[in-house]
Write a structure and sequence with these properties.
With 495 residues, this protein is an alpha/beta fold. Helix content is 43%, strand content 13%. Bound molecules: pyridoxal-5'-phosphate (PLP). The site of pyridoxal-5'-phosphate has 14 residues, from helix 7.
Length: 495
């Protein structure tokens, strides 16, 4: 079908953001038959230029229309009016993602588009790559291959390389988890550990409870595994017990997922009394808790607290952590610690998922543990990340808009900031920020439902202090310009 003229008239003085107006007008033309199925729409770049919009605004509009079934995209060929109206059953093959998730995927697309080399990027969840012990790893791999030869490259035992399982047992004993080697399952990072728990404990349509906001990865996994995810509000101590108890009564969940230490994205540390309440509640209702402790070792001040698993007398807690954030994310080694009945199911699903986690990587990590590289690395992480945190807090104080709120994180990689309630949203600020070569994660991404409109997550850990200062300065300047230009045509052209 040949290209057709799109008839778009944007009202720049309107309160309605321009990309929303674009969505409404394209949808009306499709519904009215002016744009029949198969019509190719202009490329996002061309339409953006024609309408005087940013390309991200057009991509965002196309994404939302695609998620709603109005458009379809074909790699390399372009964006077309979808044919579903001719064959409505096609749209019904998969349950539609909830509107909030469609919105989240548009935000993600927006963030993906923003990636460029010159960017000061605070948006990711990665640990700082300038810390990676690359040389130590190289030596360890060479030594493993010399020592073990082909054994290092054969299928490894499905539950993990036995000496590494032993080292994990020793490692978690120090923090109060009294487990056996047989309770340790080596996984492909914490991400796979979470996925295995959902696969082995939940069925289609079951409900999972987590804090709101929460780790984006659990939202993705829940969606992929067709599990309902329900967010529980938090207070300064973490997930609220009263709200959790209500949700347990009403929703009969199969699993609770929490990050007790330096939660992603808020950086909160759950105090001991809340940890105890949570474990007691789960034990009383016999609902397993998955505790994700990947940020536990990024502790800058305060006493070390026991993980939930160390407080668990009835075997309801499943503990996961990994050597990814603290050592090397790309090597993909993590673990689960679980009691008997859960463990058996997890081990079966693990074997079905990937037969075994790469033996070479497990052996290399084991050697790094034996040689004390992890201990050294943790010390280095702490010293340097403390400096970066100080820099981030000073820069936030100096540059972020008056009325913004944040709490100094006692650990972890993230600063969670609430922009002033009246004024540009985090998404609006983001769009303007990337034009000034700075990015952060938009808070709304981390909510299971509505929320986070004014929130942003900044990974201060990945930049040196001077870069943090410059990045925060840019964000502050961008926000101030947006506030000053409120109602100005130039700003509305961006949104
Ligand atoms: C809370 C949380 N859990 C799990 C992961 C995944 O970690 P891994 O690299 O060990 O799979 C991340 C990564 O960002 C995370 O933030």
């Amino acid at each position: 079908m040949p290209d057709r003229e799109l008839n778009i008239a944007l009202e720049r003085e309107s309160e309605i953001p321009l990309y929303r107006q674009l969505i409404t007008q394209i949808r009306a033309q499709i519904n009215g038959g002016d744009l029949p199925a198969g019509t190719r729409l202009p490329a996002s770049r061309a339409l953006a230029t024609e309408l005087g919009l940013s390309r991200i605004s057009v991509v965002n509009a196309y994404n939302e229309l695609r998620a709603a079934g109005y458009l379809s995209a074909h790699a390399g060929r372009g964006t077309f009016v979808a044919r579903e109206r001719d064959a409505p059953e096609a749209r019904q093959q998969l349950p539609p993602a909830p509107a909030t998730r469609q919105r989240a995927s548009s935000i993600r697309e927006m963030m993906r588009l923003a990636r460029k080399k010159s960017l000061i990027d605070f948006s990711g969840g990665a640990p700082p790559s300038d810390f990676f012990p690359v040389r130590y790893l190289q030596d360890a791999i060479n030594q493993v291959i010399e020592r073990d030869g082909a054994d290092a490259l054969a299928y490894e035992a499905p539950e993990g390389y036995p000496p590494l399982r032993g080292a994990v047992r020793d490692y978690v004993r120090v923090i109060g988890i009294n487990c056996r080697v047989e309770d340790v399952l080596i996984t492909g990072g914490a991400q796979q550990a979470i996925d295995l728990v959902l696969q082995s404990l939940m069925r289609d349509g079951d409900t999972l409870l987590t804090a709101d906001p929460t780790y984006l990865g659990i939202i993705d996994i829940a969606e992929a595994r067709r599990v309902h995810i329900h967010g529980i509000p938090i207070d300064e101590d973490g997930i609220r017990i009263d709200a959790l108890e209500n949700a347990i009564d009403q929703l009969r969940p199969r699993l609770i997922y929490v990050m007790p230490s330096y939660q992603n994205p808020t950086g909160h540390l759950m105090p001991l009394h809340r940890r105890r309440q949570l474990v007691r509640l789960a034990a009383r209702h016999r609902i397993p808790i998955l505790e994700d402790e990947v940020y536990r070792e990024f502790r800058y001040d305060g006493d070390e607290l026991p993980p939930l698993k160390a407080l668990d007398e009835s075997g309801v807690v499943i503990h996961t952590n990994a050597f990814t954030k603290v050592l090397l994310p790309g090597i993909r080694i993590g673990y689960l610690v679980a009691d008997g009945p859960y463990y058996q199911r997890l081990a079966r699903v693990k074997q079905a998922a990937d037969i075994s986690t790469p033996g070479l990587n497990q052996r290399a990590i084991h050697l790094l543990l034996e040689r004390g590289v992890l201990a050294k690395q943790l010390e280095r992480n702490r010293l340097e990340l403390r400096r970066r945190r100080v820099a981030a807090l000073a820069a936030a104080q100096r540059y972020l808009p008056a009325g913004s709120q944040w709490k100094a994180p006692g650990g972890g990689l993230f600063l969670w900031v609430e922009l002033p309630a009246v004024g540009p949203s985090a998404a609006e600020t983001f769009i303007a920020a990337i034009a000034r070569d700075v990015a952060f994660a938009i808070g709304a991404l981390f909510y299971t439902g509505e929320g986070g409109r004014q929130a942003m997550r900044l990974n201060f850990g990945i930049h040196k202090p001077e870069t943090i200062e410059e990045g925060f300065r840019r964000i502050g300047a961008v926000h101030a310009a947006l506030v000053a230009d409120y109602g100005d045509v130039q700003r509305r052209a961006v949104l």
